[in-house]
């Protein structure tokens, strides 16, 4: 029962209907039979075990046997505002951010951006989030928000507690790591927002708007990373720096002394 199937409508009660591409896969690729067990999720945080009750040409009726909330989210909600790259690199970026646990992606409209996100592209990226969530076993979907300008993004009313804008020449990477880890340990970080610019970089006016809104400009090292590399690198660093202590300890086999630092 390795495959997972997603339902856009929340599953309530003891019955579910699977249609569209999800049903097609089960019927015509997996060739399930009545009585087979499948795993479902609906983005609510739960995963459900269900049994095939009946099959039509393009849909399946399922009986829900068990519902279990399984939390695979990061300790801190990470929002990534990113000037989307083009084509396949866009899809790769969304897939990796989903796997890494980012909570929200905001496509940024920037002065030097090339790919201005259309609503059809947003729908396509939402489907990529679903496919990646099936694979990585995430039970909540990364939200693809409506596009914003960088200026809107940095003044967003839901201001996160840590606000970082990636720009070559910003604060040294290790100093940013130290501060984030320390602030998190002190209980001061509940959410993180990170802004990543387009291939041409952020314009001076955009950097000034971010600074005025209290964002810290951070450097990511001596090499210039492509947009998607910078976004994925920072999503994984932020997730690691704010991992719950017991997770770090278990994953990396660290001593209590290291965890206390
Ligand atoms: N020539 C551009 C500049 O100087 O800003 C490079 C843009 S880079 C290809 C695309 C985006 O990735 C940047 O706007 C920044 O947000 C992020 N980025 C890439 N490498 C970085 C680095 N070494 N330090 C900080 N941010 C970086």
Structure description:
This protein has 261 residues and is of the alpha/beta class. It has two domains: 4-69, Ribosomal Protein L25, Chain P (Beta Barrel); 77-251, SPOUT methyltransferase, trefoil knot domain (Alpha/beta knot), CATH 3.40.1280.10. It contains nine helices and twelve strands. Helix 2 (87-100) packs across helix 3 and helix 2 runs parallel beside helix 7 (227-241). S-adenosylmethionine is lined by residues 166-168, 196-197, 199, 201-202, 219-221, 223-227, 230.
Spell the H/E element sequence: EEHEEEEHEHEEHEHEHEHHH
Shape, principal axes of CA atoms: elongated
Task: Write down the CATH topology of the largest domain.
Answer: Alpha/beta knot
Q: What's the mean pLDDT score?
A: 89
Q: Strand count, sense and closure of the main sheet?
A: 7 strands, parallel
Figure out the total of helices.
9
The share of residues in extended strands comes to: 25-35%
Portion of residues within helices: 25-40%
Bound molecules: S-adenosylmethionine
CATH class of the largest domain: Alpha Beta
Query: What is the assigned CATH homologous superfamily of the largest domain?
Result: SPOUT methyltransferase, trefoil knot domain
Q: Which second-level CATH architecture of the largest domain applies? A: 3-Layer(aba) Sandwich
Structural class assignment: alpha/beta
